[in-house]
Design a protein that fits this description.
It is a single chain. The protein is of the alpha/beta class. The chain has two domains: 119 residues, Rossmann fold (3-Layer(aba) Sandwich); 97 residues, Orthogonal Bundle (Arc Repressor Mutant, subunit A). The protein is 41% helix and 24% strand. The protein contains eight helices and 14 strands. A hairpin with a 2-residue loop joins strand 10 and strand 11.
Length: 225
């Protein structure tokens, strides 16, 4: 996942970039309107973190550039201004979310993941993969048209796999997704294996296939290839 950080405070820009790099994102940065406008006209990003108060222009005007070039990336506005007017203007112009400085990096990461999920699902609340169907509104799972009961963690893990199908997910990434801010409380990754085994058994018992493939030395991949 590729992220563009548009932020003129270089120290904050570096802090955000370092944190997101550790979260396995690929980050690029721009510290003014001109550089950001140039990058947006050339490259595609999954998420754009957009500061409003840039030294050479209003960051909100960059939303017009994003629309002009029909960019598919989500936009999270990050601003020192806690103005309802700015928030409404940004959201009306197409931003997905709005955060006021200062903010916790863990919350920013959660917001980024939420934007990516919404974008990957194209606004649809139904995700279908062969005989498996997930309704994200009712949080129900159907396997071959039969509803299967999953715990919250099992549901979250299955949904995460479907959204990231055909991608290798390490056990660290899976643990972080399930535990988020409480990941430091985990003494081992054994709980991941337990959830994976339960998901596999429940899908197979309903007549479905096991799409969770173990990629030895790397992690897991949800695929039918």
């Amino acid at each position: 996942m590729k992220i563009l950080i548009i932020e003129d405070e270089l120290e904050l820009q570096g802090i955000i970039s370092n944190y997101l790099n550790q979260e396995k994102y690929i980050c690029e940065s721009a510290d003014n309107f001109r550089k950001a406008d140039e990058k947006l006209s050339i490259y595609q990003y999954d998420v754009i973190l957009l500061d409003i108060g840039l030294p050479d222009g209003n960051g909100l005007n960059l939303l017009s550039t994003i629309k002009k070039h029909q960019l598919k990336g989500g936009v999270i506005i990050i601003s020192a201004k806690n103005s309802t007017g700015d928030k409404i203007a940004g959201l009306d112009l197409g931003a997905d979310d709005y955060m006021t400085k200062p903010f916790e990096l863990s919350e920013l990461n959660s917001r980024i993941r939420a934007v990516i999920r919404r974008r990957q699902m194209n606004g649809d609340n139904i995700i279908v993969f062969n005989e498996i169907s997930i309704n994200t509104n009712s949080k129900t799972v159907l396997v071959d048209h039969k509803e299967i009961a999953f715990t919250k963690k099992e549901y979250d893990l299955l949904l995460f796999f479907l959204i990231n199908k055909n991608r290798v997910l390490t056990k660290e990434v899976l643990a972080d997704h399930l535990w988020e801010d409480n990941i430091d409380l985990a003494v081992s990754f054994d709980f991941i294996y337990t959830h994976l085994n339960n998901i596999r058994k429940k899908i197979r018992s309903a007549g479905g296939c096991d799409y969770i493939k173990t990629i030895y030395g790397m992690g897991y991949k949800f695929t039918d290839l």
